[in-house]
Every structure is written in structure tokens, then in C-alpha cells.
Design brief:
CATH architecture of the largest domain: Alpha/alpha barrel
Number of domains: 4
Distance between the termini: 81 Å
Number of strands: 40
Structural class: alpha+beta
CATH class of the largest domain: Mainly Alpha
Strand content: 25-35%
């Protein structure tokens, strides 16, 4: 059980000591069990964080099971599973009602025989059996590589990415899984070997952000229950993706003999991602079944070598073999039969990488030569990467004395692997910063693009600003010397441990993502007013903008992220970043820099509208190489950031054309209308991430009707009416209403939470005008709604808003915190209207930069206000 158990937290450790003193044979967790998640889609607060989240109901049982209900929150007693040789395995399917994530916990009170307790996990019940929802989307499943296997990504935030955990039992006691199951709603409890097991409790120790109830937290309710539920889905998704500082378990154990590397994920030396040709030498000892390592490795890819002992029982590699794989595709690249590989015996390994040839020596004998020319990686041929260690579930290796040298025998890295500092050097330790991951169960990396949506959701819901700040600090710390920002980083990376310089090709794989890093800095400062944070990040902003400006040195003056063509997405976003950068420059006292950014933005806008706007389609081309092909993301950015309209056109026409080009009927049972695909070139992929930006664009342009329809039709497919409901927003959704990437789809993904911030910002109508809400704008966009109310958190306290349509009039009530002031804008159904505030009539104005059909009242001070807008009968 060693590889499956984790250290107990302080509370359970103290209880264990207490029970031990009383002579009890197992730890009873009743004193620390939590109330399970409430299920109200309209709950404005969040649940308090407790050590243990428990199932809400038993879905079904089969086989020899007694009193399964004892495992459900609010029930007491003992559940027993019994299996005899040749009989079906007993099985209990449990439902947590919505996604949870953390360390699985099992309280075993008695056993008989030699049973193996097994747990299986899935976000959707359809994917639960037989082995959970472990399949990686887009990665071929090689039949030669059996489940459970090492995760398809490395550094996965302390996650157990195999969705099947097996625990051989020899005695009663508390089992706390060593690694995190990061996102699951459903759990199977079963036996994988004959015997009997009695359980008092099962649950999940939460390892995500579960905020305390706080008066300064956001919520929204309105006249449409669907929108209320969808707002809540996004908020919960971001909470599940947020990891508190020091919450992730360490994945390796450092000993005086070397570092013990158990199974289920791999991770590598941070400073070696740029290594190309090198020799890596180390000693290895198989502790259980296999020991494995990777060369030219990244958190997504690499060449993986597996040394199988003579008693290997995993059924993946043959005993006494060395087997080579492409990590991303699981393609077998070669295999060597070896002499006796005994567990507990040391072997010297030498990996020699030269161009397309990799030679593996064991104890000074060449045992395997690989020609890796043409072997596909996720982002092209694997020409560079670090040294990583990682095993399949059930395997464990001991490594020591790592030395990496270049072809000239210069030492690139050297360590005995016996000092705890290596945990941080290899990202195998805990996380020192709070941050926001992409999803709960799969990649579990911080992505710059995802944080662009997730960060806004956080700012309008929990206002747990430290998670957004931590994410920004993490990426800024790994900025390349040329200004590039990584696309993704594991949350447990330690910025100050190893010098790290990412080259341009890393960010050019997704050239919009580093721009999103600047936008996130801009949003953080705008919503929090944290001037010290901005000053620390200002050099990062300048370097990113300088890098992208260097990519416009071409006759078209467009960003061309070589070797690609100029695309609307990157150029429209860079235009927005230049304007955001100008505001940040002014905030830190650099008016000259701000003027330069605005001048560059004006030139870029003209170039985009001249080169990328297509008068035939009435939309912006996806890029200069695909004339006539339109994409959702690029056109949404063009509208959102104010590149559109091109001369002689209107924003309204672009949005109308976008609907005609991209919207498709949905075949989902709970469909309410058509939804957009991502490109007009035959695409069927529906992306809630890119749809989030279309949503922002439609609201910003005043197309409230179109924006609300988009929320209802696309995010409505994720509501409780879906049989795949997870209680959070999904990574992708298909036109038929199923998860868009099949069983590997993350069903709790922060990048899909756009409606949460959009509904608060536009429908409730609250946004900051100057940094930290020192001044604000409250400008509701009601659409077809009849009323809405909610809170928006600010550094000064919550802004409370409620509004209601009254015939041709409009009533708005607000409570705004001390130290702030702002402008109120109300929709007027006619050109003539009178406005009262707390019964007193005020003169209104139509702002030149305001919304058509709105009247405004400026210099509204703190406190409670009741505005009554009455349309004139004339």
C-alpha cells in the first residue's frame, strides 16, 4: 500500500494519535466530515472548506453488497462488500452530485481474506465503467499499452490521472490516496480480488479552492432560471480549477539512497527544456515492476523508456525488457530483451542523444538504438527537451547520481538526487503560489489563454484575487529573454529555483496566449487597483509588446508569427493589448510610452481592416493564407477590441454575418437553438472558450439579444437537464449536446466560464472605470429579462444592484461602497424620460461614448440609491 497512501493532514494525524492511544485499530473520520456541496444553482455564497467531501447518494449496487447507504453524507453505519472466487465483483456506484477533486479517502474498519479495494472515477456516469474517463482526447489509444498508464501529460499538479486505483489490503485502517483525483462526480467502489471489506466512510479531501461565505462575493439572479444556473456553473468550474498555495502533494520521495519515483505521472528537470543533443547518465533500481524515464521531454511529450523487472506483473511491458515509446502518441519505438533485471539491484543507464539517433546503454552495454526521424510530436519533431522520471501506476523506481553533459562533455546538470531541493528543481514538490489551472481532471496546468476567461470569472464571483495574481506571477517569472511567455506551466513550478529561458517557438504554437498574459495583467490592475503589483509586472508587459511589435516588421505591418501567416486573432488581440498597455503605461507614469502604443495601435487597426477584412464574406479572414474562411475567435476579437468595423461596414453586420457563417442547429435533446462552430470551413467543433469571446463581443456591441441566446443555447447544454451534468462548465460541447472530446473532455473547465463574468458585467451592468473601482459604471443590459439582482465584489466592498422593468420605465436600486463614485446608465424606451434618485429629479445626459438609447447620470456617490426612470408619454 506504500505507493498509494499519503501523509495525513494535521487534523487526521492528531485524531489518529488519539485513537491509537485509545487502542482503536482504525481512524474514525466522523468528527471531521464535512457537509457535502449544496446544490442550489442560485446560491450566492460558496460552501465552507472542510477536510472531507462525501457522496450524496448511492446510484446503484450489484453483487454482494450490504448497507451501501452508510457511505452517503448524513448516514451512519458500515457498508460491506464481499467477493468469492468465481463470483461477480460487488459494486457500489456513488454520486457526489457535482464535480469534486482532492485526495480520495477510505476508512476500512475490517477485512477478511486478501481483498483488493478498487475505486474508479469519472465526471460523467456514461464514462464510468469499466475504467473511468481516463482516455486522453486526440491521442491514439495504442492496444499494446494497457490501462492504467502514465498520464498523457507530465507535471500534472499532483494528479492521479489513472482513473482506477487499486489498494491491496492487509489490515484495517485509513487509506488516503497519494495523488489527487482532480475532477470527478461519480465513484465506483468495488473489489478486484476475493475477500470481504467493511467501510465506514469514503470521500474526498478537498484540494481545490472552496471559499468561505463572504459578504464581498459575487452572485447573480434574474428572471431566467437558466441564466442563474449557468452563472453558477462557471463560478464552480473556476473554484475547482483553483489550487491554494502548498496544497499539492509532493509526487516523489527523497531518501539517502536516491529519489523514489512512484507511478501515475512524470516530471522533469525545469532547466532542461531547451536541451537538444546530450548524454544523460544515472543509476536506477526497480523497486516495483518497472522504472521509467523520458528524454527530450516536456510536460506534454518526450521519448519514454521503460525498464521492466523480471517479475513485472503490470502486463504493459514484457519482463526483462527495455521498451521505448513516443509519450504523446504511445507509439512503441523499439524493444530490447535483457538479462535478469532484479528488483532492488542497481543498474547504470546512459542515454546518448545525437540528432535523430538515441542510444541506450545499460551497465555499459548498448542495448537499444532508436531512429526517431519522422516520429511525430504534439508540436512537431522532438528535437529538444529535458530529462524526466515517471512510471505507470503500480510501478516504482529509485534513481540516483544524474549527470547530463553536452556533446563537448560540459556538465549541464548534476545531482546525487538525494537532497530535497531536487523536488523543486524537477517540479515534483508542492506549489508555492495559488493559481488557476485549466481543468480539474486532466492537463491540470496553468494556461495563459485559459486564465483570460477564468480570471474574469473569479473577479466577478469570489474575488479571490490571489489566485489570479499567483498565476500571473508564475508566468511572468518564466518570461523568455526575447519577451515570450509560456503557453502552459505546471502550478508546482518554482520560478526562483532554476534559470529558465523559453524560446519563441514555445509561444508561437499558440501566439494569442502570451498576449492574453498582458490582458490578464491589465484586468488584474483594473479590477483591484494594486499599483505595486502593476509596477512589478510593467517590465513584463513592455517585453511582450516589444516582441510582438518586432513581428510587424513587414510590408503589411501585421503580426506574422513566423512561420505562420498573419491571422486576425493575433492581430486583433495585439491591437487591444496596445491600448491596454497604453493605459498601464499612463498608470505607472510613462505618458510617452502610452502615446507610442496608441500610434502603433492606429497603424495596426488600419492594416487589419485593409488586409484581413473580406468584403465578399463581410467578415475577417482567419488569416492571409485562407481567404474566405472566417473564424469565431478572430472576428469576436475584432469586435470586442474595437478593430471593427472596417470602413463602410457596421459591427451589427459583422455579428449578423458571423451568425450566418458559423451557427449550426443542435441535435441535443435539451437544445433550445443553434450554436456556433469555430470556423466556417466545415468545422463542427463547438468551443465554449472561443464562444466566450463572441459572448463578450456581442454584449460590448449592444447585441444583448444575441448574447443571451448564445448563453442559453450553448451553455444550456451543460445544465442539469443534460445527462452529462457535472455542476460546472465543460471544456468542449458537441453539436449533439455530448462532451465535445468524448470521455476525455474536462467537464469542469475554467476557460468555458465566460457567461459568469459576462452576466455580471453586462446584464447586471457593473464594471470598473478607473483602477480598483475607484470610479465605476453601472449600465444594465436587460434584453428580454424583466428583473435581475446581484452583488459584484470590489476592493472597497460589494456593489449591490437590482433592477426591474416597469412598463416603459425602469427601476434601478444600488448600494455602492464608501470611497467610490461613478456613473449610472439606464435604458430609455423613448428619447424623453425623467430620472429620479431617491425621489429627487435629476438632469440626465446622453453620452457621446455611451450606448444608444441610454441616458446617464454622472458623479453618483456612495451609499444607497433608488433610481426611477419614467418614459415620457409625449
Amino acid at each position: 500500500m506504500k505507493s498509494n497512501e499519503a501523509s495525513l493532514n494535521d487534523i487526521t494525524r492528531n485524531l489518529l494519535q488519539s485513537f491509537s492511544a485509545l487502542g482503536l485499530g482504525c481512524l474514525l473520520l466522523g468528527a471531521v466530515s464535512s457537509q457535502a456541496f449544496a446544490d442550489s444553482g442560485e446560491d450566492s455564497g460558496s460552501e465552507s472548506r472542510e477536510p472531507l467531501l462525501r457522496p450524496i447518494k448511492v446510484v446503484s449496487t450489484s453483487g454482494n453488497v450490504t448497507n451501501a447507504e452508510a457511505l452517503v453524507e448524513g448516514h451512519e453505519g458500515y457498508a460491506t462488500l464481499t467477493m468469492v472466487q468465481g463470483s461477480p465483483a460487488p459494486q457500489i456506484i456513488l454520486d457526489y452530485r457535482r464535480d469534486v477533486g482532492g485526495l480520495p479517502v477510505f476508512e476500512v474498519t475490517s477485512i477478511s481474506g486478501t481483498p483488493k479495494l478498487q475505486a474508479i472515477y469519472s465526471e460523467a456516469q456514461q464514462y464510468l465503467l469499466p475504467d473511468g474517463d481516463a482516455a486522453a482526447p486526440g491521442v491514439p489509444q495504442n492496444p499494446e499499452v494497457a490501462q492504467p498508464e502514465v498520464s498523457f501529460v507530465g507535471d500534472a499538479a499532483g494528479a492521479d490521472l489513472s482513473r482506477v486505483d487499486t489498494y491491496p489490503l492487509s489490515r484495517p485502517g485509513l487509506i488516503v490516496n497519494r495523488l489527487i483525483q482532480g475532477g470527478e462526480r461519480f465513484q465506483v467502489i468495488t473489489l478486484a480480488a476475493p475477500g470481504s471489506v467493511t467501510l465506514r466512510q469514503v470521500g474526498v479531501q478537498a484540494k481545490f479552492f472552496v471559499p468561505e461565505r463572504d459578504i464581498n462575493s459575487g452572485f447573480l439572479r434574474c428572471s431566467d432560471p437558466a441564466l442563474n444556473e449557468i452563472w453558477h456553473l462557471g463560478s464552480k468550474a473556476v473554484e475547482l480549477c483553483s489550487v491554494p498555495a502548498y496544497s499539492l502533494p509532493t509526487t516523489w520521495t527523497v531518501t539517502a539512497q536516491g529519489v523514489e519515483v512512484p507511478g501515475s505521472e512524470y516530471t522533469g528537470y525545469q532547466g532542461g527544456t531547451g536541451w537538444t543533443d546530450y548524454t544523460a547518465v544515472f543509476d536506477v533500481q526497480v523497486l516495483s515492476n518497472e522504472a521509467a524515464w523520458l528524454v527530450r521531454a516536456s510536460s506534454l511529450d518526450g521519448f519514454r523508456l521503460v525498464l521492466a523487472a523480471d517479475n513485472d506483473t503490470l502486463g504493459i511491458s514484457k519482463p526483462n525488457t527495455l521498451r521505448a515509446y513516443s509519450q504523446a502518441t504511445k507509439t512503441v519505438l523499439g524493444e530490447a530483451t535483457l538479462a535478469d533485471i532484479k528488483p532492488g539491484s542497481w543498474h547504470n543507464i546512459r542515454n546518448v542523444l545525437s540528432g535523430n539517433t538515441i542510444e541506450i546503454y545499460i551497465d555499459n552495454h548498448l542495448v537499444l538504438t532508436l531512429n526517431v526521424a519522422g516520429v511525430p510530436g504534439l508540436f512537431g519533431p522532438l528535437t529538444a527537451g529535458t530529462v524526466s522520471f515517471g512510471n505507470d501506476q503500480g510501478a516504482e523506481g529509485l534513481f540516483r547520481n544524474l549527470v547530463v553533459t553536452d556533446p563537448s562533455q560540459n556538465v549541464l546538470y548534476q545531482s546525487t538526487l538525494t537532497d530535497p531541493s531536487i523536488l523543486d528543481q524537477f517540479a515534483a514538490g508542492t506549489n508555492v503560489l495559488p493559481s488557476i489551472m485549466d481543468g480539474g481532471k486532466r492537463d491540470r496546468n496553468d494556461f495563459t489563454g485559459d486564465i483570460g476567461i477564468s480570471g474574469l470569472t473569479l473577479l466577478y464571483s469570489t474575488f479571490a484575487r490571489e489566485y489570479l495574481a499567483g498565476s500571473i506571477e508564475l508566468f511572468s517569472s518564466f518570461q523568455a529573454s526575447d519577451g515570450g511567455i509560456p503557453v502552459a506551466l505546471p502550478p508546482q513550478y518554482h520560478p526562483d529555483v532554476t534559470p529558465f529561458d523559453l524560446s519563441s517557438p514555445t509561444f508561437l504554437a499558440l501566439p494569442d496566449y502570451p498576449l492574453q498574459h498582458v490582458t490578464s495583467i491589465y484586468h488584474y490592475y483594473l479590477y483591484t487597483g494594486d499599483k505595486a503589483f502593476l509596477q512589478a509586472q510593467w517590465p513584463v508587459v513592455q517585453k511582450v509588446i516589444a516582441l510582438y511589435a518586432s513581428l510587424t516588421n513587414n510590408p503589411q505591418h501585421l503580426v506574422i508569427p513566423l512561420p505562420f501567416s498573419a491571422d486576425t486573432l493575433s492581430n486583433a488581440h495585439f491591437y487591444g493589448v496596445l491600448l491596454q498597455g497604453a493605459q498601464l503605461a499612463e498608470a505607472v507614469g510613462h505618458a510617452d510610452v502610452a502615446a507610442g502604443y496608441r500610434a502603433a495601435a492606429a497603424q495596426l487597426k488600419g492594416a487589419i481592416n485593409t488586409v484581413l477584412y473580406n468584403s465578399t464574406t463581410g467578415l475577417y479572414d482567419v488569416n492571409t493564407a485562407q481567404k474566405g474562411v472566417s473564424d469565431q475567435h478572430g472576428n469576436s476579437y475584432a469586435v470586442l477590441y474595437g478593430v471593427a468595423p472596417a470602413p463602410g461596414t457596421t459591427v451589427a453586420s459583422i455579428l449578423q454575418k458571423l451568425t450566418g457563417a458559423l451557427y449550426r442547429p443542435s441535435a441535443a435533446p435539451n437544445a433550445t437553438g443553434p450554436i456556433p462552430v469555430q470556423q466556417s470551413s466545415g468545422s463542427t467543433q463547438v468551443g465554449p472558450y472561443t464562444s466566450g469571446y463572441e459572448l463578450f463581443a456581442r454584449f460590448e456591441a449592444g447585441d444583448t439579444t444575441g448574447a443571451l441566446a448564445l448563453i442559453r443555447n450553448e451553455w444550456g447544454l451543460m445544465r442539469k437537464s443534460s445527462s452529462y451534468y457535472s455542476g460546472a462548465t465543460w471544456e468542449y460541447v458537441a453539436l449533439d449536446g455530448t462532451p465535445g472530446l468524448g470521455e476525455g473532455t474536462s467537464l469542469a473547465h475554467g476557460w468555458s466560464s465566460g457567461p459568469t463574468s459576462a452576466l455580471s458585467k453586462y446584464v447586471l451592468g457593473v464594471r470598473p472605470v478607473t483602477a480598483g473601482y475607484k470610479t465605476w459604471l453601472i449600465e444594465p443590459q436587460p434584453g428580454d429579462l424583466t428583473w435581475a439582482k446581484g452583488n459584484v465584489p470590489t476592493p472597497y466592498g460589494s456593489i449591490e444592484v437590482s433592477w426591474e422593468k416597469e412598463g416603459n420605465g425602469f427601476e434601478l436600486k444600488i448600494v455602492v461602497p464608501p470611497g467610490t463614485s461613478g456613473t449610472v446608465g439606464l435604458p430609455a424606451s423613448s428619447g424623453k424620460a425623467s430620472l429620479t434618485d431617491n425621489g429627487r429629479t435629476f438632469a440626465t445626459m446622453n453620452k457621446t461614448n455611451g450606448r444608444p438609447g441610454y441616458i446617464y447620470l454622472e458623479n453618483v456617490g456612495p451609499g444607497a440609491h433608488s433610481f426611477q426612470l419614467t418614459a415620457s408619454k409625449n
